[in-house]
Amino acid sequence: MQVLSPNEKKEMVLSSRILIVEDNSLFRATLCQQLALEGFKNVKEIGFLTNFDDMFRDANPDLVLLSNQMPDGNSIDICRSLRSNGFFKSIVMLIPKGDEDAIALALEAGANNYITKPLRMVELIPLIRSQLFQLGTFDDMQFEIGNLSFEPANKMLFDIGSDSMQTLTEKETTILKFLYQAFPSDMSKAQILSEVWGLQNTVSTHTLETHIYRLRQKIRQLTDKQLVLTTENGYRLAD
Fold this sequence. Notes:
The protein is an alpha/beta fold. It has 9 helices and 13 strands. A 5-stranded mixed β-sheet has the order 1-7-8-9-10.
């Protein structure tokens, strides 16, 4: 089983290739600048769908940020075409707030996720990190969290210095995976609910808080370190 350290995980994410498809040049420039400040090294952008195929082949992206409002074509068709042509990496749609029909169409076309405009960078950056590090692909790896070893495939936490271990539930495992993906950023409660429970709108924040409490109890059986922190926005892993 491959062990991936936090630094290796961070480097994997930051070296990923991102393609921004957005007609607003100022908005594109802002996104590129912010991603550069966050350490992303390979970001390309395009403002017209007429150039999409050539730019897509050149960029060979690991993640596409795709605006659903392009003046010269249908972004939903582009998303659907990418999936039908074998592109199974991340597609995140940029959708105006309140456009529920566009959200439904984007997800049906194969988008992995979406974020609403006007967007907040504190929400976009963790989402990008999460999408770029899809732990479903790396379930056979082992991850370091503090002085613990996390094995998603086996739903297990181990104390690296001893044989002590804790078995996690499916939801606890998934929560820990997404917090690991987002690190060093935090994730809001709404983001975690969306990622872990999907579109089940009946799930309350109290349900999440209960799962976090139980996860912390299991961690406490292995270490005195507080590894899951409560933040102003939600939760994050400790440094």
